[in-house]
């Protein structure tokens, strides 16, 4: 989702620094961004000169130090609490702006856990985007118990006024608003497939043609990434101990097998990249 967030911010006229863990990941991210810009160009959503201007506003780096002077930093790494807390601890040391906003795009990890990894928990907030970021209008704004009202207002203004998204506020509970409703539905679809009740295409067609969903639940799992679904389910299960949030064995096996959905070429469906 990081590339989608960077794209939306650059198209909105902001100066954006993108950091990836190594050169390979950086190149892959740059390619994703370029092809998404090209898609917007083909679809007539952006002119060639606006695309070039947006691309010129993006810088790519492997160094976290590039964020020293930033107003807003949005973390969008894998759903792993330990890694996210480590990144927030490092960002706290690296970002020199005293009033910077430290945001996480986490779907399910408590913002409080990330806030207390810094010396500035009042400046840490959830800014949660949805896939595909350039298309979905919603952003969830998630203050922790220690987030200041100034930070929440700045996060809302960043998402709504700067990026043109629509915001809702959520309490800092795993899953927030949308995933608390969506993830049990997606896990139910996986359990239905696992139980042999119906084929993947039939489950997907059922919800698309019967309930007018834009895509079926198994295709949506593939779009989000099966590792991400597992990470979100694990966080929600850890928080509430509700069986409906427990990742089904089929999901666990597919993640172990590297069948992660669109990004790996195969999940519940197969994709050509
Ligand atoms: C896990 C979490 O924490 C959070 C989450 O992300 S939960 C997931 C939330 N997302 C969803 O539920 C997605 C539901 N699905 C959809 O909205 C749609 O199926 C979809 C937008 C993904 C694709 O739509 P579609 O009609 O099947 O395909 P398509 O016609 O190719 O695309 C529709 C539009 O979206 C654009 N689009 C599709 N994928 C895109 C992408 N990856 N990037 C940019 N634009 C994209 C297309 O250009 C097209 O735009 P126009 O209508 O202006 O031409």
TrEMBL record:
This is 3-hydroxybutyryl-CoA dehydrogenase. It comes from Frankia umida. Belongs to the 3-hydroxyacyl-CoA dehydrogenase family. Residues 175-271 form the 3-hydroxyacyl-CoA dehydrogenase C-terminal domain. It comes from the Bacteria. Coiled coil: none annotated. Gene3D superfamilies: N-(1-d-carboxylethyl)-l-norvaline Dehydrogenase, domain 2 (1.10.1040.10), NAD(P)-binding Rossmann-like Domain (3.40.50.720). SUPFAM superfamilies: 6-phosphogluconate dehydrogenase C-terminal domain-like, NAD(P)-binding Rossmann-fold domains. Keywords: Oxidoreductase.
